[in-house]
Design goal:
Blueprint (H helix, E strand, L loop, with lengths): L9 H10 L31 H6 L26 H6 L7 H11 L8 E2 L6 E5 L6 E5 L7 E2 L7 E6 L6 E5 L8 E5 L7 E4 L6 E6 L5 E6 L8 E6 L4 E6 L4 E9 L7 E10 L2 E8 L4 E6 L7 E5 L5 E6 L7 E6 L4 E4 L7 E7 L5 E8 L2 E8 L9 H4 L5 E7 L5 E7 L6 E6 L4 E4 L17 E6 L5 E7 L13 E5 L13 H8 L3 E5 L9 H4 L7 H4 L2 H12 L9 E6 L1 H11 L7 E5 L5 H7 L2 H11 L6 H6 L13 E6 L7 H14 L3 E6 L9 H20 L4
Helix pairs in contact: 4-6, 4-15, 11-12
Amino acid sequence: MIRSIHPGSQFFRRRLLSLVPLVPIVAVAAACGGETPAAEAPPHRNQPLTNALKDAVKPAAAEGDAGAGSRPYSGHGASSVPKEVIAKFAPPPLPEDLSRTFQSMLDVRAPSAGRLSPNGKTLFMTWNVTGTSQIWRVDGAQHFPVQMTGGEDQTTLADVAPDGSFLVLQRDRKGEENPGIYLQDPKGGKLTVVAHKPGVQSTFQFLSDDGKYIYYRSNDVKPGSYILYRYDRAKNTREVVFDQEGIWGIADYRPAAPNSPELKLLLQKEVGGDMNEYYEWDTSKKTLTPLFGQGEKEDYEAQYGAKDGEILAQTSHLSEFKRLYRWDLAQKKFTPIVAEIPHEIFKFQVDHSRTRIAYAINDQGYTRLKIIDARTYKDITPPAIAKLTGDHVTFGSMTRDGRYLSVTVDSGKAPPTSYIYDWKTGSLTAWHTPSSPEVDGATFAPAKLESYPARDGTAIPMFVRRPEPSRCAAHPCPVLVMFHGGPEGQAPPGFSPVKQAFVDAGFILVEPNVRGSSGYGKTWLHADDGPKRLNIITDIEDVSKYIRANWGEGGKAPKIGVWGGSYGGYSTLIAMTMFAGAYDAGSSNVGISNLMTFLQNTAPYRRILRISEYGDPERDKDALIKLSPSTHIDKLSAPLQIIQGASDPRVPVGESLQMYDLLQKKNVPSQLIIFADEGHGAQKRDNRVLQFGHVLRFFKENLLGTNK
């Protein structure tokens, strides 16, 4: 069991950025991720406007202002836009060859690492083989998987009961990011709802050791604040555990005293992007004790350690890179428990029995796994795990007794393979086999780590995938620059059939990790906070300058396209407007067109966290206007494609509609596609085929002059 990284935590969102395809083009934008309003405040309802935001959403904008164009909008979600508008921009059919290409590539896949039953005999996992993520069961290593859930709604596994008698699931609808909590018998059957209300986000936190109680958080009272609840399975009732206003989650728990049914909860309060504070809440005494992070605006992830009075924390507060520390509750002091290295420790986990600590190192985008003793902190990584190699070797879940650990390996040449390590026998067993029908992953172009110089001389890392010279779509070989989401994300290497489809089409694929990306230390991460983004936004243009100057043939520079999702979509819009001429065509997926209107209309929860990243609408208004793509619309002349999900709670559909209006006024060749049944990027298989297919079609037409 992974004990305490709750689904709303900074770690959960940030790591999705690195390892899960976004929209799913780049990476799910954690920092662009968040919850939507509660039932009392439907998705189209806004908070009161500040004076600065009122100016920004006026129907007509002054010259050079970041106005909303001719379509001022309000709120987010499908209800914020007339149905006829959504229908007008429905995705058109794809040419058959493009559809076939991505249908084939999406057949190359692997299920999640999953969670083992307590007895180690059954693996439960999430898999999207039906076109939508659902729960599957494997009754033994390499046994045929059995589907447990179905339908059109994304469903994920949250936990397995301590005695294996039930599963805890999370389910969302139409990408609204308002998940509910359900229970299911491990043999299958109907789901039993614990909490799921329209417009409300309820996210699982943990199961009590006896399985009687489910702890979860919900914004059912106030959209931007989370109450912690305890649900009694037997009585089908819930009670409030903690209800102070704020973005709260439960990071871990322990008994308040030996043999006591009451608990002490390690609470995390998010106060900004990559900024959180930790407290201890005693459920019996009803006392809240501040621990660390208060007023620091620093990033922490923490769990209780194996020793009394000990908390383990991952942070970069005391060094440039994230490191593991021991916090002594009595002395209120941090002591490092692993050697300092020039790389990030981006996640860690203490098993439920508190005997071992697994942690993963982000080494320039590559992932390495280490395991140490929870009391001595000595390295105990088993040889069977130590010899695993690939672009990413990381850990998944642990059983409560600590006996079994799941390990995932992404070789970069095949879909990820998941193993179960048995600490008792020392065996490492693959429980399921990835699928690669009609595709030889060994022929895929590897992602090679390179760099380009920014104008101030800083080396910016980038991963490059190149086709064989004979397979370039033109000469010089055309280039697609893909920016990741976040901005606190990271473009990693690794196996990607979708990215390979663009390489197979004859494009060089480039993924920069511009300043503001995670994984390169806190100075790099915070280089773009607020108005500081003005100093480094030029990283977006500099990669195109480098490519034109160095990747040409016979004195001819290559054609360059730019694309990305979420913050990558924003980067694309900036590339095409502020840096007009740097790129020959762009495709923006769920991208921000106006930072002022975005901050007004995104989910209340997100507004709180995003202000710390982008800037305050009052204090930093001038910078936000300068950094808005809509401000620079008069510079744009190259073709631009915009893709959006109607239900998106992060980047409202209005951001795409207002940008499209401006493009129409400019008579810029453009296309707007809206998925009526998706949120922050397409998740359903058929929609993903349309999404990727139209991006490839667009670049073929506008960089090569053909759709073949």
